[in-house]
Design brief:
Peptidyl-tRNA hydrolase, 7 strands, alpha/beta, 21% strand, 7-stranded mixed beta sheet
Length: 197
Amino acid sequence: MPQPIRLIAGLGNPGPDYEKTRHNAGFWLLDSLADDARASFALEKGFAGQVAKVRHDGEWVWLVKPMTYMNRSGQSVGALARFYKIPPEQVLVVHDELDLLPGHVKLKQGGGHAGHNGLKDIQAALGSPAFWRLRVGIGHPRTLGLAQPVVDFVLHPPRREEGEAIDGALTRARAVIPALMDGKFELATRQLHGDNP
């Protein structure tokens, strides 16, 4: 029986300069989840991140936005998981995904990190790739007909029509989070993937 999600990490870079950039898609979803639960984030230095706690079905679920910059995300996620004894299988990481077009969102467990520095660091910190990933499509500069390098692309805000597509994907992702907190991964996957444009 799959274990319900108890820790949700949204990836991004801290600070107002990065707030609206594509790399911060994970932060965007976590802000919405905290709003849904009327919870607020507080900086917890021991966990190197902004942390919020929400109740689901009588259980606590932790939301974290690492404040370490993307490539050190594992510092925050690893510290929280160890402190609350949450195994990798009960961790969900929400991140931007170059290999999916804006508007697409996919759920998967395990696998590689495809060069995503945040995922790479979390995998190292948890000592396992078995955590869940919610991959929010931001597109790739090549598939979107842009000449800019990837590193530059992820640190810029999406264009208007891409932003609208990403918002739609985040709304659908938000709708399946309760199922993930119940451990109903098949149901969440069906709902999410059935809705991809």
